[in-house]
Amino acid sequence: MEAITPDAARRQLLALEPLTHRLPPGADRAAVDALIAPAYWEVGASGAVYRRDYVIEVVTQRYATGVDPDDNAWVVDDFAVRQLADGVWLATYLLLQGERSSRRSTLWERTSDGWRALYHQGTLTQS
After folding, report:
1. Of 21, 35, 83, 99, whose CB is crowded by the most CB atoms within 10 A?
2. Chain segment 46-101, per-residue pLDDT in tens
3. To 5 degrees, how large is the angle CA 18–CA 21–CA 24?
């Protein structure tokens, strides 16, 4: 796999964030499964820990039923990426969801099949 520039990584990862909200309409379990690494886990803005299987189930149901959060008005701000190791990148950003704001970070792995998330965390901030 050839190297990627920080600008290219930034563009590609920005298209995938917020994580699990940028899949094509009607995305199936295989699409969600491909986006999330086998050892994936996350810490939600509430502080709760979510494992991969739970996240995949929730996201798959959301896409299957068409019950998505209204994320068209969400704003991703202050987006940055940093390469941590060969093929491993950290994406950080501020997510504005109306009155709610959170600082987000996702650890991404770049594979021959594309990007997949290793870890994600959301931390509520003061609006």
Report:
1. 35
2. 899 999 999 988 888 877 776 666 677 789 999 999 999 999 999 999 999 888 89
3. 130
Whether the Cβ atoms of residue 102 and residue 125 lie closer than 8 Å to each other: yes
Half-sphere exposure of 122 (CA within 13 A, CB side): 18
Neighbouring residues of 110: CB distance < 8 A, sequence distance ≥ 6: 1, 4, 9, 87, 88, 89
| Cα-Cα end-to-end distance for the chain | 41
- Contact status, residue 31 vs residue 16, Cβ threshold 8 Å: no
Cβ pair 44, 50 in contact under 8 A? yes
